[in-house]
């Protein structure tokens, strides 16, 4: 009789393990929009499920939407707008009531904000640090995922010499491997000991290799989004991008069409559609090497209960 019970429980466990991986539908409040566009047409499509809670536009430019706006001081070129008495950061805070601001964009890249760590620290102390006294949380400059990014942030904090309040680390990630993505984020969290915001990420090969297919992108998004939803130290994330033109990034990453319609990938991102992945079996290792995660905490609890029951029954069987 003990063997019969064990066999039945094993079948039950196998059935639970076969649940489809739809972790991205969990309403964690972490998902955001990197882009903007027309609030009445483009952005409103991403509010249907309640999963998306915030957005940013790499600037002080905002749109009329119920989503929380997060301002960014992109770099030196935006200082004049940031300090404008009628249309700058203080006016934005009064109008949009953000809870956080973002620092400079990819400062170690010559094609982006292009700042030395000392320049970044000086800019931070002058234009961003004062906002801490107003109750806003301050997000670090967001480096690209080139190897120089982590070093730049470390040197930036050294140059700050204790004068920069950095409440969370912002970062970007462009590559094609979900396992490497998870390791990259874990390393940043371990290194800086702060929560993370992934303010840009996509399945994009910048190393002259093949680009992801649409199915690969769907699987990469599903696995990386599920990973971030499961980590309490990942506070927010925004896919690149909710834009009509991705500016040279793999078009399979697009969440909007050229005329502003949400794509299948966009529907997946907000949890309104099943991921159209490349077909890895649920619960197995996908093409990017990251095991799929449970559909919900409930299914995980069921697995834990079944595992515990099996261990207890096996112990009982050994005593009989």
From TrEMBL:
Keyword Zinc: no
Gene Ontology cellular component annotations, sorted alphabetically: fungal-type cell wall
Signal peptide range: 1-18
Keywords: Hydrolase, Signal
GO biological process, one term: fungal-type cell wall polysaccharide metabolic process
Residue ranges annotated for the Asl1-like glycosyl hydrolase catalytic domain, each copy included: 42-269
Pfam families found in the cross-reference section: Glyco_hydro_cc
Keyword Signal on entry: yes
GO molecular function annotations of the record: hydrolase activity
UniProt protein name: Glycosyl hydrolase catalytic core-domain-containing protein
């Amino acid at each position: 009789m003990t063997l019969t019970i064990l066999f039945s429980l094993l079948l039950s466990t196998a059935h639970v393990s076969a649940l489809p991986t739809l972790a991205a539908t969990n309403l964690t409040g972490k998902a955001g929009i990197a882009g903007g566009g027309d609030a009445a047409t483009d952005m409103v499509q991403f509010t249907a499920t309640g999963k998306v809670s915030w957005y940013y536009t790499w600037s002080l430019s905002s749109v009329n939407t119920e989503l929380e706006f997060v301002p960014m001081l992109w770099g030196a070129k935006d200082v004049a707008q940031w300090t404008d008495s009628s249309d700058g950061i203080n006016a934005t805070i009064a109008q949009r009531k953000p809870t956080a601001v973002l620092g400079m964009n990819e400062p170690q890249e010559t094609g982006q904000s292009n700042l030395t760590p000392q320049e970044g620290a000086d800019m931070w102390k002058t234009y961003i640090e004062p906002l801490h006294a107003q109750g806003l949380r301050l997000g670090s400059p967001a480096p690209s995922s080139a190897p120089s990014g982590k070093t730049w942030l470390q040197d930036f904090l050294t140059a700050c010499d204790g004068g920069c309040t950095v409440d969370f680390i912002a970062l970007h990630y462009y590559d094609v491997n979900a396992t490497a993505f998870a390791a990259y984020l874990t390393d940043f969290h371990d290194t800086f000991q702060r929560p993370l915001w992934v303010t840009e990420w996509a399945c994009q090969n910048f190393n002259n290799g093949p680009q992801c297919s649409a199915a690969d992108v769907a699987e990469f998004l599903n696995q990386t989004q599920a990973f971030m939803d499961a980590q309490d130290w990942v506070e927010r994330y925004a896919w690149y991008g909710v834009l009509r033109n991705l500016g040279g990034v793999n078009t399979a990453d697009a969440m909007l069409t050229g005329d502003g319609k949400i794509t299948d990938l966009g529907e997946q991102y907000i949890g309104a559609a099943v991921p159209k992945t490349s077909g890895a079996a649920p619960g197995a290792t996908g093409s990017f090497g990251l095991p799929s995660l449970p559909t919900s905490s409930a299914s995980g609890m069921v697995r834990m209960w079944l595992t515990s029951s099996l261990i207890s029954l096996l112990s009982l069987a050994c005593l009989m």
